[in-house]
Amino acid sequence: MSQHCTSNCNSCVSRLLAAFIVVQLVNVALVHASNQIDVESDLRHLLGRCHSQSDEYNDCMKQVFNDLRAYFTTGIPDYHIKPFDPHHSDYVELRRGDGAHGIGSFRLVLRNVSEYGWSKSEVTKFHADAEDQRIVYAQYFPDKTLEGQYEFSGKMLGTEIKRRGPWNLTLYDYSQTTSVLRVGGPGSLLKVHVEVDRIGGMELHIGNLLGQSLNSLADGVINSMWQLGLPFVKPMINELVSTAFTDIFNESFRYFPLESFLGPATR
């Protein structure tokens, strides 16, 4: 009798466990389906207000960009759009000269770069040129923070220099203009150019720049005199950021079916 009861109990437990697992799987499936429907509905609501042939199209898309900030921290996985706050770049390289000869030749590699601040940013201008397949938008950040690892090698006045370590950068009252160009038909590569417009303030730390004992001194000099060097380093910042964003935009937006969400092309 005892064995029979034990057998029945085990059978009941097994059935309850199986039922629980099935319920959980159904709940997960329903939540996923609900989220997908919600995202689809939200995108159609936001983008459906914008009509590509309307005189208000640029202003409408500017507002859409700002309304989409809610997705910056999550991305939109169903459309392979990765989170933008933070967003990541595994590898960015900048070269000047041949890396081995000449005054001022160098190679700078940034690895595992993370950038924060997008969810607090605001698009202030937007312009689309359908004929050239280009969009240009201006963006303001109260603050933006970047961090990662760097590797530097170069020749300065015939002396070889090699450094590597962590770095972090915070920009305040910062604005930039981004140009995104599609170089062919739908699904073709995107080319991104980012131009720094304004930096109101900056804090930069570069680990191992002058050795452990002089790192604080190096930080102090850089952060007190960065305005003087900005005209010289600004083109390099533009190039580094443009290279990183070309990879990021192609990874997330190259195949995004924007046209399917826009409103009818009527005036």
TrEMBL record:
GO process annotations (BP): circadian rhythm
Keyword tags: Biological rhythms, Signal
Gene3D superfamilies registered for this protein in UniProt: Haemolymph juvenile hormone binding protein
InterPro entries in the record: Haemolymph_juvenile_hormone-bd (IPR010562), To_sf (IPR038606)
Pfam families found in the cross-reference section: JHBP
Database matches in SMART domains: JHBP
Iron among keywords: no
Signal peptide stretch: 1-33
GO CC terms: extracellular space
Family: Belongs to the TO family.
Protein name (record): Circadian clock-controlled protein
